[in-house]
Amino acid sequence: MIISDNLKMYVQKLRSSNLRPTKQRLNICQFLFDRKKTFHFTVETLNKKINKNGATKISLATIYNTVEAFTSAGYLKEILTSKNKSYYDTNIKSHHHFYDEGSKELTDIHYSQIKLSKVPVPPKGKKIKNLEVVIRIQK
Amino acid sequence: MIISDNLKMYVQKLRSSNLRPTKQRLNICQFLFDRKKTFHFTVETLNKKINKNGATKISLATIYNTVEAFTSAGYLKEILTSKNKSYYDTNIKSHHHFYDEGSKELTDIHYSQIKLSKVPVPPKGKKIKNLEVVIRIQK
DNA sequence: TATATAGTTTATAATAATTCTAAACTAGAA
DNA sequence: TTCTAGTTTAGAATTATTATAAACTATATA
Q1: With CB atoms counted within 10 Å of each terminal CB, which end of chain A scores lower, N or C?
Q2: Closest-approach residue (CA) in chain B for A120
Q3: Percentage of chain B exceeding pLDDT 70
Q4: Taking the mean position of all CA atoms in its chain, how far away is CA B30?
Q5: How confident is the model at residue A23, as a pLDDT?
Q6: Which fold has domain A3-137?
Q7: Residue A2: pLDDT over 50
């Protein structure tokens, strides 16, 4: 797949979510999704990496806005593992995580690697929105 | 069980964890553990409830210190469900949680209500510290 | 029992992540 | 081309938490 083609794809994708394909959003799309492996990040790390090569500066507020917009549009998955900081994952398929307490890094666990043979019924009037397994690991 | 007896018990408990049984810690013990049902709280709510009846004031810093000390002593379990805020649970037995996105409330799921028939092997050199299932629910 | 000391509490300041604000900018409809 | 609603931005505000340093206290031991 040729990378220049992806731009058009991202424009489509954004439009389909009622998000205007702005320069900043497209840059962030390319940064996040033009890669083969899934990418785990915090807003802090994304901001640093995006703004490293002084070429285009995207403000921190926009990084926050965009990550929030992409998450509610379903392009990103938010994972809570650590006090005071949210992690995001470009892998939005149903899957779970290892969280390394030492390095503070997330690793995907493929959904087939965890099998739940029993899941509780939600309280009356409530529906299950999602089910997340986090396995904390350490040395 | 007579409540006045619990004080002695808490003194023992604290001593066994190398925590001096101070007035504040004993107050917090009584507030947290002199109850039949498990209790879920944030530092904010604990602080409000503890300091409601103007009798004894415990500073916010002490609430933070104590919750931290009780968590590392294993009297409390920390549950991460929400950006920017930690939840704690007086139920330290292995169990899981419903997190209601609307009311932002936690409910215990008894460990027998969830069965994992397959769990991944941790990466080389790492050990599993704990495994937590959070089921997000909504209307 | 008195006292020295290490642990604890406290008010307050500092920090860190995130959200808010309001003015300037821009995509895209008309 | 022009208008407007959506977007970006710098910076201020907010919120949860942690750090600081002085006052206090539990408790070991003289």
Answers
A1: N
A2: B113
A3: 95
A4: 13
A5: 95
A6: Arc Repressor Mutant, subunit A (1.10.10)
A7: no
Across the interface, of B86, B118, B129, the residue whose CB is closest to A138 is B129
Domain segments of chain A as ranges: 3-137
3-state secondary structure chain A: CCHHHHHHHHHHHHHHCCCCCCHHHHHHHHHHHCCCCCCEECHHHHHHHHCCCCCCCCCHHHHHHHHHHHHHCCCCEEEEEECCEEEEECCCCCCEEEEECCCCEEEEECHHHCEEEECCCCCCCCEEEEEEEEEEEEC
Q: Would you say the pTM of this structure is higher than 0.85?
A: yes
* Closest CB from B83, B101, B115 relative to A116: B115
pLDDT reported for residue A33: 95
Residues whose CB is less than 8 angstroms from the CB of residue B130 and which lie 6 or more positions away in sequence, other chains included: A135, A136
On strand C, nucleotides with any atom < 7 Å from a protein CB are 7-12, 16-21, 26-28
**Cβ pair A74, A129 in contact under 8 A:** no
Pairing of strands A127-138, A96-100: parallel
Instruction: Tell me which residues of chain A have a C-beta less than 8 Å from any C-beta of chain B.
Output: 80-84, 86, 98, 100-101, 107, 109, 113-120, 122-123, 125-139
**Rounded mean pLDDT, B100-107:** 87
Nearest CA in chain A to B100: A126
| Tokens encoding A139 | 């040395």
pLDDT digits (tens, 9 = 90+) for B64-90: 999 999 999 999 999 988 787 889 999
Angstroms from A10 CA to nearest CA on chain B: 28
Nucleotide nearest to B61 (CA to C1'): C10
Q: Which tokens go with A127?
A: 């529906």
